[in-house]
Specification:
The complex is a heterodimer. By secondary structure, chain A is α+β, with helices and mostly antiparallel strands. Chain A has 2 helices and 7 strands, in the order ααβββββββ. The relative contact order of chain A is 0.18. By secondary structure, chain B is mainly beta. The chains are: A alpha+beta, B mainly beta.
C-alpha cells in the first residue's frame, strides 16, 4: 500500500511537471545589436563568397572547338573563365560572391543566363528544346 | 610576323578537324536538343520513339501533318556542309494512307556571308522531289545525287528536307539521313560556317581568345574569385579582441593568373591596394599559396620589403614556410606615407589623408616556356582548392600571424598563442583565429567596399552586418553592397 501511494505521488508529480510551461520558449531570442553580442556557431566561416560547382554538359560536335568559357555576374563582371573544349564535360568548383544568384555563361557566341541553384551552375551548349514542337 | 593559318580545317577557335566525309542523322540520340546543338534544325519535326513509327532503330524524325504545299511548313535542315560527291540518302514512310498528295523534297541553301544571323542565302536551282504515286505505309529509300555544280564546291550549303502534301491527316517518318560531304558549321558561332582564324603568335590559340596574341608563351588571363577587387579588413590585437572597427589594416586585392596555351600557369599577379592603417602596429602582409611548393616558382617581384620581417630565398618566396609564401610588405607604414595628424593613416576623419598605395606583385612560374625546378602547375589543378591564404605578421613579430577564420597559419607562426587571450583556436580541430564567440580578426569582402572610421564599430557603418552574421550568412548576404540603408556614411571613413 505504501509503495502504491509513492508510485501515485511520483506519477502525479510527473504529470504536473510535464504540464509546466517551458519558460525558455516564452522568451524570444534577443537579437545582437553589435559585434560583441554576436555568438554564431563554430560552423560559420564569415565568408562573403560561396563555393559553386560549374557543371557543363559537353556537346559531341564532329569538329574540335575550343574557346574561353566565361561566367559573369548580371552586371557583366567576369567571375570565372577557363579554356574549354566544347565536346568535353566539365565539373569544377570555384568561388563567387555569395550574393550572386544568377550568372551569364558565355562560350563563343553562345550566352545563357543560368540561376545558381543549390550552389551549382548547370550549363549545356545545346539550345533548350524538347523532342516535340 | 603575323601568321595566318588557312589550312583546310582552320576554323574559329578550332584547330583540328576530325569530321568524317559524311554527315549522318539517325535520330538515335533521342534528343532533339543535342542534334540542334550540332546545328541540325527542325521546323515542325519532332523526335519519336513510338514503335508504330519505327523505321530502323528506336527513334525517327516525325513531320507535321503533310497538308501544306510550302516547303517551309515542316522541314529538317542540315548543318552547313561542304558537299562531296555522291548520293544523299534517307528512309521515309507515311503513317497512314489518308490524304491526296504527299511529297518529300530536297533542296540546297547556299551560304551567304551577308546574312550574319543564319548565313542562309539563295536556294540552289536544282532540287529533288519524291511523290507518293499511291499513298502507302511502306518504307521508301530515297536517294538523290548531289548536282555536280555544287559537289566538292568550296561554298558551304545546308541540305533542306521538306514534307509537303494536300488533304488528310498524315505524317511522314524519316530516318538514317546520310549527306556526303564535310561538316562545316560552328555550333559556338550561331551555326555559321567554320571560318579562317588568325593566330598571330602561333601558339594554337586564336587571337579572339588569346589575351596575349603576340606572345606565344602566354595565352590566357584568369581571375581567381572574379575580376572585381575584394577588401581585406583586419583587427591586429590578436589574440585579444580589438575595437572591431576592422581598419587596423585595410587592403583591396585581386589575383590574376596568366596561363599558356596548355593552361600551365606562367605567372600570378597580385594587385594590392593598401588603403588604411588604423593602429600603431607596424604590420607585415603576405599570402601563402596553400600546398604550392616554393620550388615551382622562378621569381617574385614588385613587393616592398626591408628585410626586417620576411627573409626570402633566391626566388623571392619567404624562407621557412612549408608552402610557397609571397611576402608583400614588411611594414604597412613603409607603404603608406604618414600624412601627419593623429591616429593611423586614412582612418581618422580629422587627420589629413594619404594616397593609397598600389602594387602588383608578380609570381613567375614559367620563363619562355620553361617551368621552375618544381615543375609546371596546371590552372585546373591550381583552382581545385582555395589556395589563397592572406595573413598579417603582427607588429614585426614573425611568430605572430593573423589569418582569415579557420585558415591555417604558416609553419612560421608560433602555436603558443593559440587558446590565449580571447583566441579559442583548436589546431587539432582545424579551428583557427576564432574567439570564444566565434568572432574573427580578419574578414574578406568579395567587393571593394568603404571601411569604418577609427574606433567606430564596424556594424555601425554596415547596419546589416550583425544580422548577416547572426543568421550565419543566410540573411543579408549582400550586406556590404551600396544599397539603400546598407551603409551609414556617418560612420564610414571618407577620403
Amino acid at each position: 500500500m505504501k509503495n502504491f501511494f509513492l508510485l501515485t505521488l511520483f506519477a502525479l508529480f510527473g504529470l504536473l511537471s510535464s504540464c509546466k510551461k517551458d519558460s525558455n520558449n516564452d522568451t524570444p531570442a534577443k537579437s545582437a545589436s553589435n559585434i560583441n553580442e554576436l555568438s554564431p556557431s563554430a560552423s560559420f566561416d564569415w565568408s562573403t563568397t560561396q563555393q559553386v560547382t560549374l557543371d557543363v554538359t559537353g556537346q559531341p560536335v564532329p569538329v574540335e572547338i575550343k574557346h574561353l568559357l566565361k561566367v559573369k555576374d548580371q552586371n557583366g563582371v567576369l567571375l570565372f573563365s577557363i579554356y574549354h573544349k566544347m565536346s568535353n564535360n566539365l565539373n569544377i568548383k570555384f568561388e563567387i560572391p555569395a550574393d550572386v544568384k544568377k550568372v551569364a555563361v558565355e562560350y563563343g557566341k553562345i550566352t545563357k543566363n543560368v540561376d545558381v541553384v543549390a550552389k551549382t551552375i548547370k550549363f549545356k551548349f545545346a539550345p533548350e528544346i524538347g523532342n516535340e514542337d | 610576323m603575323k601568321r595566318i593559318y588557312s589550312l583546310i580545317a582552320i576554323l574559329t577557335g578550332i584547330f583540328s578537324l576530325s569530321a568524317s566525309a559524311q554527315l549522318t542523322l539517325d535520330f538515335e540520340s533521342g534528343d532533339r536538343s543535342r542534334e540542334a546543338g550540332n546545328c541540325w534544325a527542325f521546323g515542325a519535326v519532332s523526335f519519336s520513339s513510338n514503335s508504330a513509327h519505327n523505321i530502323t532503330g528506336k527513334w525517327v524524325g516525325r513531320s507535321n501533318s503533310m497538308t501544306n504545299t510550302s516547303p517551309n511548313a515542316s522541314w529538317i535542315k542540315s548543318p552547313f556542309v561542304k558537299l562531296g560527291k555522291g548520293d544523299i540518302t534517307f528512309k521515309v514512310k507515311l503513317e497512314n494512307t489518308s490524304g491526296t498528295t504527299k511529297t518529300v523534297r530536297i533542296r540546297f541553301i547556299e551560304y551567304n556571308s551577308a546574312n550574319t544571323s543564319t548565313g542562309e542565302g539563295a536556294i540552289y536551282s536544282d532540287s529533288f522531289s519524291f511523290d507518293w504515286s499511291s499513298l502507302n505505309t511502306k518504307v521508301q529509300n530515297i536517294s538523290y545525287t548531289i548536282p555536280n555544280a555544287i559537289a566538292n564546291s568550296n561554298t558551304p550549303y545546308k541540305v533542306m528536307i521538306s514534307f509537303l502534301g494536300t488533304g488528310g491527316n498524315n505524317r511522314c517518318n524519316i530516318d538514317d539521313i546520310v549527306i556526303p560531304g564535310t561538316y562545316w558549321a560552328d555550333p559556338s558561332n550561331n551555326c555559321l560556317p567554320l571560318s579562317t582564324i588568325t593566330d598571330t603568335d602561333g601558339d594554337g590559340v586564336s587571337d579572339e581568345d588569346d589575351a596575349f596574341d603576340t606572345d606565344r608563351y602566354r595565352a590566357f588571363k584568369y581571375y581567381i574569385n572574379g575580376e572585381q577587387f575584394s577588401t581585406l579588413l583586419c583587427e591586429d590585437l590578436w589574440p585579444n579582441r580589438g575595437d572591431f572597427d576592422f581598419n587596423d589594416l585595410v587592403v583591396d586585392y585581386r589575383l590574376l593568373v596568366v596561363a599558356n596555351a596548355e593552361n600551365n600557369i606562367v605567372e600570378l599577379k597580385f594587385e594590392i591596394v593598401t588603403r588604411a592603417i588604423g593602429g600603431s602596429f607596424h604590420n607585415g602582409f603576405a599570402c601563402e599559396l596553400t600546398e604550392i611548393d616554393a620550388a615551382s616558382i622562378i621569381s617574385v617581384t614588385g613587393n616592398k620589403l626591408n628585410g626586417k620581417v620576411f627573409k626570402v630565398r633566391g626566388n623571392g618566396t619567404e624562407e621557412g614556410p612549408a608552402y610557397a609564401s609571397i611576402p608583400f610588405f614588411d611594414d604597412a607604414y613603409n607603404v603608406l606615407t604618414y600624412p601627419g595628424g593623429t591616429g593611423g593613416i586614412n582612418t581618422n576623419p580629422a587627420s589629413p589623408n594619404a594616397a593609397y598605395d598600389s602594387m602588383t606583385v608578380v609570381v613567375t612560374f614559367m620563363d619562355k616556356g620553361q617551368p621552375a625546378a618544381g615543375g609546371a602547375i596546371l590552372y585546373e589543378n591550381f583552382i581545385k582548392i582555395n589556395r589563397i591564404n592572406p595573413y598579417l605578421v603582427v607588429n614585426q613579430d614573425r611568430n605572430k600571424e593573423i589569418h582569415l577564420i579557420d585558415k591555417k597559419p604558416t609553419s612560421m607562426a608560433s602555436p603558443k598563442m593559440f587558446g590565449t587571450g580571447d583566441d579559442a583556436s583548436e589546431p587539432n580541430s582545424n579551428r583557427y583565429y576564432r574567439s570564444q564567440n566565434n568572432l574573427p580578426w580578419m574578414i574578406s569582402v568579395s567587393r571593394s567596399i568603404p571601411y569604418a572610421a577609427e574606433k567606430v564599430e564596424f556594424s555601425n557603418a554596415f547596419p546589416y552586418f550583425v544580422k548577416w552574421a547572426e543568421s550565419e550568412g543566410r540573411s543579408y548576404e549582400d550586406w556590404f553592397l551600396d544599397r539603400s540603408g546598407y551603409r551609414n556614411p556617418k560612420f564610414l571613413y571618407g577620403r
